[in-house]
Amino acid sequence: MPFRILVCDDEAMIRDALEEHLCSEGYEVALAVDGDQALRLIEEVQPDALILDLNMPRVDGLTVLRSLREKGVTLPSIVITARPGFEGAVDAIKLGAEGYLQKPFDLREVSHQLSKFFERRRLQTEVSYLRDRASSGYERLIGTSPAMKRLFETLARLERVDSPTVLLIGESGTGKDLIAEAIHRRGPRKDKPFMQIDCAAMPETLIESELFGHEKGSFTDARAMKRGLFEVADGGVIFLDEIAEMPIGTQSKLLRALENRRFRRIGALVDIPLTAAVIAATNKDLKAAVAAGTFREDLFFRLNVVPIEIPPLRRRPEDVEPIALALLERAGRDLGRKTAGIDRDALDAMRAYAWPGNGRELRNVIERVVILKTDDHPIRREDLPEEIRVHRTTRGGSPYVLLPEGIDLAAVERGFVEQALARCAGNQTQAARLLGISRFALRHRIDRYALHEYVGGRLAAVNDGP
Fold this sequence. Notes:
- By secondary structure, the chain is an alpha/beta fold.
- It has four domains: 4-121, Response regulator (Rossmann fold, 3-Layer(aba) Sandwich), CATH 3.40.50; 142-311, P-loop containing nucleotide triphosphate hydrolases (Rossmann fold), CATH 3.40.50; 314-389, Helicase, Ruva Protein, domain 3 (Orthogonal Bundle); 409-455, Orthogonal Bundle (Arc Repressor Mutant, subunit A), CATH 1.10.10.
- Helices cover 46% and strands 12% of the residues.
- Strand 3, helix 3 (61-71) and strand 4 (77-81) form a beta-alpha-beta unit.
- The two termini are 28 Å apart.
């Protein structure tokens, strides 16, 4: 979602110039003509940053900043003024402003200051989450997206209970093993063993022996007694990866062990108490497997006590950058190669890519680039595999062609807004979703192009005067 900027200046020419420039940079823009309107809009539209003229009639810029401080509102602000000297700027900075421009100013400097604001905020947010996870045992799990925040909240709640079974559901490469380890490391069983087995990698006879153990002579190759993982775990956690691939016969024995909290070694006559907790993981739809007869329904219900869904990388593109940078740092360290980061164009391509292999595929791509790279420059788009390079979403890669004679961009935008409103029968929420913009941004365009007939009357425009 684009950042939203509130521009407050009593000069229409300044407002219009800033609006046009910031919109061309991809920001959403709301306009206010004085401080009184700015204070109202800050509550209504909740901007991400404020560009504020200090010298305005009625309510001036310093009064706005003073009011925000009194209300405890933290809002990155750039103050602008036509007066020479720094007296007003010093007062504004004391009240929390982070940037200062004197008229006339270069619009590129506005963009530069905003970029610094948002980059600093991103880094602060990321550091905060990384610090929290480092102190909570989740430092290997990277992501600040809403989906990952919800996952961390679920894991934090799980720390306070000792659930006998947890089911991790996620596509291949989403880090189910890391999450299983984190649950163990932060849970009440952290001082007990953590045992792991890949159910897809073993035949039925071997997997039963691995899980439950066997007595000497219980089958041809059983030359000595062997303790199984459930026994070795001894009050700890056993992680059953790819549980959907477990043979149906072994599923029955696992179900009995979980229900009775007891099991037997193969060939034994005596039960052994089951003291370990079980974390199972799958990249399959277990309900579909139940319907197909390849997975026991009663075992599914037994395992599904605490289901945790792990979102794929394509549903959280904002996490691609921090994950890629962490993987790059690790790859450089492990391979003994100097790394210099990843440039914006390459990151754009990586965010646009669907990552069917999720984090595992991203790790492989980063390692491949580090191994093959022959210079010390940041990773560029051309360093990436072809299937990632072709997903151009920014500079130079648009699927649209600009005609030699040019176009009327405003007319094109107006036409698309009209079509969306007509198709959605004036429903602004649906039309905004169709256009890929916020409802606030749609309202702004409806007023700009006088399209109120499509929504049954004039809207309350955010940039109307008081």
